[in-house]
Write a structure and sequence with these properties.
single chain; alpha+beta; 11 strands
Length: 352
């Protein structure tokens, strides 16, 4: 560097690069470090050492692609600490959503029971109308007729009475007393001109067949009965004991009682003249059958919605495990980036 400072104050007479330079008498030889030359032989611009180091490091970091995690098994990916923490959080969320779904299910049952009680109260308070106004023999039974309060006149046929097995009343299992009523006056609209139809009537409930024997007596002559309609059931078993059946099915009863027959049956509420005491009367039927079958649809939808959220939380964790096992996570960069090599400087020879 000393000779470089001196060279700034002197006019060089000649400059030669390379080896084997000839020197005349009195010539001064100066050797200095020169900047890297370009292909055309001109001198490149001088760059400070610190700046060159920083630029080389940045170029190396940008040119190198970021490494990715190696693929692994699902089990190894699932037990990584990060995914275990996520699993605990998502399990808590799933448990909360599942509990909210159960709560909504309880609300659906409670609100359905409230609607059912209001429906029964309205049916009991309504005055009975003529059976002929709502249902004709051999006519299809609509769901809107369940619990309809009606009045009809006819004559019981005690020879065709049956016991319907396995029926529950107030938590006890017993039998329904089912009696055919040959209808003589359904009232209401006219139009039926055939033979007198048969209406199945559930006159009450007994605990055992032995109790029923003393209660099968029916009022003599014509009776006027009021009660609530219920839809006919599906056909039951054909091998029931004599005098018994396991279903109140009009399609099955017509083979025993003859026809024409109504597609529904009557749950007795009152009879004139009165029937013998001892038969326990049933309450008005509902669409849910009075066994908690009515559910509030809105709360049911909320319950299913919460359970879907719980399932989605678990699905999300499984998806994260699969992505982790596939090696989709990006590894952390190296602590010390690669440093670019400092360009070499070639010495220059000046002849003064």
């Amino acid at each position: 560097r000393f000779w470089l400072l001196i060279g700034r104050f002197q006019q060089p007479k000649s400059r030669t690069r390379g080896a084997g330079v000839g020197l005349g008498p009195g010539s001064v030889l100066r050797v200095s470090e020169s900047e890297p030359s370009t292909a055309s032989g001109t001198t490149a611009a001088t760059v400070p050492d610190g700046a060159a180091h920083t630029a080389g490091a940045a170029g190396a970091a940008s040119s190198a692609s970021e490494p990715r995690r190696e693929p692994t098994t699902l089990l190894r990916a699932a037990v990584r600490p990060r995914l275990l923490v996520v699993l605990i959080v998502l399990l808590g969320m799933a448990a909360l959503c599942a509990r909210l779904g159960v709560w909504q299910l309880d609300r659906a049952e409670q609100r359905g029971a409230q609607v059912e009680r209001r429906q029964v109260a309205a049916q009991e308070a309504a005055a009975p109308g003529p059976l002929g106004d709502v249902l004709a023999p051999q006519e299809s039974f609509g769901g809107n007729l369940v619990g309809e309060h009606v009045r009809v006149r006819g004559r019981y046929e005690p020879a065709g009475q049956l016991l319907v097995a396995d029926r529950v009343l107030d938590g006890r299992v017993g039998y329904l007393v089912l009696t055919p009523l040959r209808v003589s006056d359904a009232g209401g609209r006219a139009g039926w001109t055939g033979a007198d139809p048969v209406l199945p009537v559930v006159r009450g409930w007994v605990a055992s067949p032995a109790d029923a024997r003393a209660l099968l007596t029916v009022p003599d002559g014509e009776v006027t009965v009021t009660g609530h309609l219920q839809s006919s059931e599906a056909s039951g078993s054909a091998d029931s004991p004599p005098g018994q059946t396991d279903a109140v099915s009009s399609a099955q009863l017509v083979n025993t009682w003859g026809g024409p027959i109504y597609s529904g049956y009557l749950v007795l509420a009152q009879s004139q003249p009165a029937q013998p005491a001892g038969l326990a009367l049933l309450g008005p039927p509902t669409l849910g059958g009075g066994e908690g079958g009515n559910w509030n649809v809105q709360n049911l939808a909320y319950a299913f919605q919460w359970w879907i959220f719980a399932g989605f939380a678990l699905f999300l964790w499984l998806r994260m495990v699969r992505d982790e096992a596939a090696g989709d996570g990006i590894a952390e960069p190296a602590t010390e980036p690669a440093v670019a090599d400092k360009p070499q400087q070639r010495p220059s020879v000046d002849v003064l």
